[in-house]
Design goal:
Chain A has one domain: Fumarate reductase/succinate dehydrogenase, transmembrane subunit (3 helical TM bundles of succinate and fumarate reductases, Up-down Bundle). Helix content of chain A is 80%, strand content 0%. The chains are: A mainly alpha (115), B mainly alpha (130).
Chain lengths: 115, 130
């Protein structure tokens, strides 16, 4: 028996799992949103606002977006690693993606919890 | 100078590789492209959500963007990207647990992903965008 010693950053399996768990969260939210949207029709500003004023909808939408940003990070990191070879440019793109996604996460809070 | 007659006999090489991309490969690369597209437009989509929930005036501005032919076209593309990414993603989750990995089933589900996401795009776009 060969005992394999796993070395490295260990982020491979974790990111693989993050990608899948966040995907399931987003898929479930899509179904819930479609149902809530269909029930709220016809959509005008008042019904649209009321839909997102419910506590559970805010939390569910926040979970959707946070899953989206985690999911986008793993996906974009894979794309950058596959196609961008110069180390400096790759690092710059990784940092850019992270900053954009963190900014989006903060923005999502303000959108969802604005008075 | 190379002989013209000799040059004529040189073998032609056609790049046939695009024809050989299996349908599962097509679903896979479209999954990547659609994911990239969605990332590139995520800030714009958040901006639209922000506008739609901010005030009645900005809701009207949001409706003008969504009603503009160019806005509609971009949203149509993003709607397809989302639906393809979703359908292909569900297929990949089944492949992860070794469901549908035999060739015939994998080809069938690839075709289903392409067809279902296109059909849903048409249905939802005709209901929401037009």
């Amino acid at each position: 028996m060969v005992k394999r010693v796993v070395v490295g950053a260990h982020y491979g399996v974790r990111d693989w799992l993050v990608q899948r768990v966040s995907a399931v969260v987003m898929a479930l939210y899509t179904v819930i949103f479609a149902g809530a949207f269909a029930a709220a029709r016809p959509i005008d500003f008042a019904t649209w606002k009321a839909l997102f004023s419910q506590g559970w909808m805010r939390v569910a939408t926040l979970l959707f977006f946070l899953s989206l940003f985690l999911h986008a990070w793993v996906g974009m990191r894979d794309i950058v690693m596959d196609y961008i070879k110069p180390a400096g440019l790759r690092l710059a793109l990784h940092v850019l993606v992270i900053l954009v996604l963190i900014g989006c996460a903060g923005w999502t809070f303000t959108i969802l919890w604005r008075a | 100078m190379p002989d013209a007659a000799l040059k004529k006999k040189r073998p032609l090489w056609y790049n046939l590789s695009p024809l050989n991309l299996p349908i599962a490969g097509l679903v896979s690369i479209l999954h990547r492209i659609s994911g990239l597209l969605l990332f590139l437009f995520v800030v714009w989509l958040l901006y639209l959500l922000d506008a739609s929930l901010a005030s009645p005036e900005r809701f009207d501005a949001f409706k003008r963007v969504v009603g503009h032919p160019f806005g509609r076209l971009v949203l149509l593309g993003l709607l397809w990207a989302f639906l393809h990414h979703l359908c292909a993603g569900i297929r990949f989750l089944f492949l992860d647990v070794h469901k549908g990995v035999d060739l015939a089933t994998a080809r069938l589900t690839s075709g289903l992903v392409l067809a279902v996401s296109l059909a849903l795009t048409i249905i939802l776009a005709s209901g929401l965008l037009w």
